[in-house]
Structure formats: C-alpha cells, structure tokens
Design goal:
about 800 residues; Rossmann fold; transmembrane; globular; transmembrane helix; Methyltransferase domain-containing protein; disordered N terminus; SAM-dependent_MTases_sf; single chain
Length: about 800
Amino acid sequence: MSSLASGPAGFIQNGLDHHYVSIAGTAFFVCALVAVVLVLGSQRRNKVDYNTGIFSYLKFIYANFLKPHNKASQLTSTQASVYDSTRKRLLCGREDMLGLVAAQLKYKLENKELQKGKAIWVDIGGGTGYNIEAMAAFVPVPEFFSQVYLVDLSPSLCEVARQRFERLGWKNVTVVCQDARSFRLPEENIDPARNPGTGADVVTMSYSLSMIPVQSIVDVSTRNYIGGAFNRHVNWLGRAFWRAWFEADRVNLDAARRDYLEYRFGTVISASERNYLLGGIPYYIFIGRQKDISPNQASREAIEKLDASFTESPYLSPANHRNEMDKAVIKSTQEIRSKAYESAVINLSANLPLPASFYQNHHYRIFYNDLLPKHTQFQNEYIYAFTWEDPRVDHRLLDIKRDDVILAITSAGDNILDYLQKSPRRVHAVDLNPNQNHLLELKVACFIALGHRDLWKIFGEGKHAEFRDLLISRLSPHLSSQAFQYWLEHTQVFTSSSGRGLYETGGSRHAIKMVRYIFKFFGMEGQVKKLCEAQTLAEQREIWPRIRSVLMSKPLHWAVVSTEWFAWKAAGVPRNQRNMIVDDYFKRNGLTKEMNNAKDLSGKSIWEYVVDTLDPVVQETMISNDNYFYYLCLQGQFSRRCAPTYLTPQAHVKLSSPGAFDGLRIHTDEINEVIARITPRSLTIAVVMDSMDWFDPEGADASAQARKFNHALKLEGRILLRSASIEPWYIKNFEENGFTCRRVGARFSGSCIDRVNMYASTWICTKTEEIESLTQEKRSNSVDHLEL
C-alpha cells in the first residue's frame, strides 16, 4: 500500500528537471522578499494598521485555527481589536434584526404602549457594543432609551465597548462584564412608576445564544407557534459542515436553543436566512414576547374576542360562558369555533405559546398550518400578481353598504381593497394559496406604514430599490411572521435591476412575458406604445389590426395558446374550466364529442374564445386611460392615468386612516372550510369569482358548496360569480339549494361586458329559501371541555 502511495510522488520528483525546481524556488523567495520590502517600506511612510484589511483576517485565522485556547474569553482576547471588522461580513443579519426591533418599538411608541426616553434595553452577549451603536441608524439611542445594558463575559470585548461609548459620549449605556445567565436588571434603574413585575422593554441576542450552554432541551411534537418554516430547512451537508466549523470557536449550532426560544416566548417575527459570503452559513432572526398575551383569565378572553371576529359570532364573556350561551340570541345555533381558536386552546392547555398569529400587532391574518400539503403544493409562488375582475361592475351589481358582511376570494387582493373603501362591517378574504394572502398582507401593510409615493412605486410601477429597507424598518410590524418571511426571501421582485418588477412574477407571468417577447421579436413595440397612448377609440381601433395580426395569428395559437399546458401555467385556466370553454364551442356549432375525437377542435375553440375576449376590449374600452388590466399586460406597470382605484391618492387617504382594516379577516383555506366555521346567516355577500369553474362536474363539491353558502348567507344574501361558460353546469346546484339565479352579464361574439371581458357570463345567485333549520343541539368538538 505504501509503495503505491509514494510511487506517483517519486515519479514526479524524478521526472522534473532540477533547473525548473531551482527557478520555482528562486521565484518564491523573490516574491516573499518583495512582499517584506513593501510592508517595511509602507511602515516607514505610514504606520501599518494591523487591525484593518488583510491583517484583521490573518489575526482572525490565527485566533480561531492556530492559537490554542480552552475557553471563549481566550478566543476573543486575541482578536478583540479586529472583532468588528471581521464579524461585519461573517455575522450577517445583525442590522436586519435591529431594524425589525426598532420597527416594533416605534409601533409601540405610536400606540402609546411605550414612552420615549423610558425604555430599557438589554443586549446580551453585546461584545464590542457594535449592535448598540448600529441601532442609532434606526432610533436615537441616547434619547430613546433610559438605560441600555451591554452584558458580555469577555473582558477584552467589554473594554472595547467601554471605549466606544466613551468616544460616543453616551451616558445611558452600562457595560456589564459577567455571565449572561446570572445577570439581573438592577432595581435602582427601574422607574418606580412602572409595574413592579415588568423588566426590560427589549432584550437582544446577536449570535450570543449559540455560545450559552444548554440547560434543558424542549421536545414538542407539534409546532404551530413558530411563525412559519419558510427557508428553515438546512440540508445534511450544511448542518454537518457548519456545525463542525463553528464548534472550533465554542459556538454551537444545534437546534435546541431556537426550540427553547420558540417554546419560552411567543413568536412575533421569525426568519431563517443564509450568509452566502462563505458558502451559505445558516442563521436566524427571532423577535418574541411573553407568551401570555394577557394575564390569567384575560388571555382566554382575548382569544374569545378574536374567535368571535373570525366566525362572525357574538362575543360571550368566558367568565360565565356556558350560562350566557343559554341566554344568547342565537342560543339554538351550533357552537362555531375557528381553527385558530381550537389551536390556541390546545396550546394553552399544554402550556405552549399560542400560534404566532395571536402575537401579531394586527389580527387580520388568521392562523393556518403552513406545512399542510394543500398549502405547500403552490411551491411558494402566487399565481396572480393582479386581479382579473372588474370592480366597477362589482360595485354596480352589489351596491355594498356599511352593514354588509362580505366573503371574497383574495386573488391578488385588488378587489378586496376596493370593497374596503366602502367601509363594510366585515370582509373575509379567502384563498387556499398562502402566497396570494401574503401579497394582500403586503398591500395592507403599505397603506398602514407608507406614504402614497412609496405605495405607487411598489404596486404602481412594480419596483422599489429600497424595498428591503422599507420591509424591515417600516412594514414588518404590520405583517404576519409568515408574510414577512416570504417577502424577505423575495425582495428581488421589487429591487432587481434586471427584472421587470412585480407584474412579471407569479404563475401568470408566462403569458405576459410571452406577449412581450413576441412584440419584441416582430418589432411591434412601437405599435404597442402607440396603442397605449391613443387618445380616442378611433385611433385605438386603427392601430389594433397591425398588432392583432401578430398576437392573434392562428399558427401561434395552435402551437402555444391552445395547449392545455399554456392554459394552466400561463393563463391560470385549469382543465375543468378549459373543458367548459370547449363544450360551449361544441354546443354553439352543433358538434358532438365524436366529431372532436375525429378531428381535434379544442384548439380552435380556445382561439375563438381569445378573439371574443380581446377584439371587443379594443373596440369598446380605452386602454390608455381606463382599461388598466390590458395596459398593465402591455406595459408591465400602471400609469398615473390608468391604474386601479386603490392606487389613487384618494384611496390612500381612505385606507391609511386609523381603523381602515379593522374589519378585514384573511383566511388561508378552502372556501368550504371557511364558511363551515362562520356563524349561520351572517354573510350578506359572497364573491367567488370563477372558482366554481374549477370543480369537477362529476363530483359533489359544487353541490356541497351551494348548501354551505345557503347555511352561511342571510335570507336575500347574494353570491356574485363569473364563469367561462355562458350556461355554467353548476347553476342548477344553486337552484336546488335555495337560490334564485340570474345572469346579469353575457358575452357573445363581438360584445364587451366589462373591461376584462374574459368571462362568458356573470351571475347573481340570491338566497330565497332556507334549506335547513338551525339545529337545537350544540356541537361538541375536541376542545369544548378543556379546562384552562
């Protein structure tokens, strides 16, 4: 074995000419000599700072991998002078954490939950004090905090921190050199007027938790309280390599510490990130609070109030809940509980934190389990970046009043924001795709936290170079943990210089991109620009034939648009809906299925459907200043003259006012699941878009949903739906379940029923009959009898 190992080396050594070896050795010596001369020469001209540049990293390498040490204080003493310069790149996420904390503090200050100049901050493992100085970029540390404590075990790092704050002249910062496990807040520095049970207002730990020995490990079987698992998984190689790497520094990357944080505190915001400078080092940011949202019985009461708003139930005080149930106005109604309530009660009974949604500053996003397959099937992608429904027609048909309770599909949230401008009592936004609701949440947060200029750049132009900073410093207090995780991972949607912004993302981006590529390939960009700038219908109609000859050419549609793949991936049209389009074509032309088998006519039916959609739009609506749906598709962004109502300055004034979103509830679930948990006869309006088209005609889902809507809607309550079919097959299911159905819009060849004109028909289904009486028996579920 040894001869085989040494053989190749011997062969190379003997095979090389000694002259080459001498030349190589000489060259190495000369290079080393030149380097020494340059260093010595620079010392004579300017004193070399061995704590900056390459020298700082050489010192870091020596202290971590060469110098013997047996405890952390020895490790940090050698590199205390270069700690900040090396860790700035190695320890990512510190500024993001500080920005998130500062945003929460500002929110509490605005809501009078905190007094400026009275807050107490403890930075555990603060080291050189870098975090405290960096916080000044977000809040004025000397004026905002009455006292700041930096706690660290390393004397050398504490000394650097003391020098830092002496230089800054900050008198309210105290450096405490001791073990963080034994630190207690000094009583003399706590305001006597404060609640005696209250401690620090904020505690931060920047990587220091990984260096504190584990006292106990908490193992829980269900974790519905961690605030989302986006980007949390680290593959085996990443876990094994980085764990071994950091153990050399006495830094432990096992998951127990994070598990304990999430068990001990309620999750406000959590994010899992990677530092790709050195190959993707995993790190996380955790913002938490005391896990009891209110003391003692008030905690249960707060949950009851939220549950009542989720289910449209009257609120009954839990102090004598069962007695009051007998006297309630709906005493004969089954007891309706939301999934959020059931999860909260189970968690409380097990002494676990509540689901993260209960700790958010706003409670419009209702708890859901983001790990269920029905949610993960969307692979962290929304389908629609904007809503394909004309709200102008919705308002005309529905005439929304202040006492209306509306249930509507979220989609991209545009129409939800339109409905909210009418100030209805409640709007339940429902979508099975969590990412569609993340998009709605982002829009709501922008109205609450940003001015109209920033709102316009994000959703009018679809791009904002400072989006990441806004997300962390201003939007984060108004987002759920899951939505924050999603947008933190997708900041490039708005910030990428090479991308075209929000409206070329999502599943439907394929169609928009394809149209843009076609126009560019055929040199039609100038004609498209003219079409979008046309001032009259006559001018628009004159330009359209030149664009139409390319965009609606039969070869293109037969090869691409008429395919089933394109219908779903690019246009968001599922198979069942596509089949409805084909069936209508067959009926109009007196064809049979046997004819279709002999000659495939489905492609022609899709082509005709597209023609009937687009031609009337150009003939009847102005794209330059009114039809923002097609303006967006052609230009990739809105214009000031052609944009949804929610992007106008007037809408911003309305929706940025206090309490504008108090009536909003965002459900991440199927419609059937949501309406089954809403108090019977409480809804007045339901807007289901074209979702009924997705059902299988051979299945029982459509009939079941019609029955549940009858149960949830008040008498004379209305359902607004659109369909790709002129006579949808499921209308009979509504008529069999207590509804009177009326077609209020029909698109025939050459006609235009709204600015989208994509659907063949629009229907209003009015509940005119109760199909079942409210049961006298109260429902029993798994949490009814849990005592808290």
